[in-house]
Amino acid sequence: MSEEIQKENNEVIEEKETKAEAKTFEKKKKISIEELEKELLAKQNNNGKFPEFNVGDTIKVNVKIIEGDKQRIQAYEGTVIAIKHGGPRKTFTVRRISYGVAMERVFPYHSPVIDSIELVRKGKARRAKLYYLRDRYGKSAVLTEKI
Known about the structure:
single chain; alpha+beta; SH3 type barrels; 2 domains; 5-stranded antiparallel sheet; 1 helix; 5 strands
C-alpha cells in the first residue's frame, strides 16, 4: 500500500515539474517572438515613411499592382474605419463608395505592396471602430472634419 502511494506522489511531483518547465518555456518563447517582431520592424522602418493617421481620416493609399511582368501603382482613397493590432501585424481598413457600391479593403501597415500613403483629410471620430458607417450612404456617411 505505501509503495503505491509513494509512486503516485512521485508521479504528481514529476507532473508539477514538467508544468513549471512548460510555463518557463512559454515565457521564453513569448519573449523571443517579441524580440523578433521588434527586429522586423526596425528592418522595414515604415514608421517614418507614412504619415500619422487615425480612424475617421480620409487617406489615399498607393498600392503596387503586379500583372505578369508589368508593375503599376493604383490609388485607393477612402475613410479609415478600423485600425487593428500593433507591431508588425498592424492592419487598417479603408472604406470607399464607388458608383454606389461600397468597398472595404484591409491593408497590412508594414506591407511592401504599399507604395505610399497620403493624408487627404482629418476626420472627427469618437469611436475606435466605425463599423456603423456600413449602414449609411450619402451625406450621413460623411464624418465632420477635424479642425
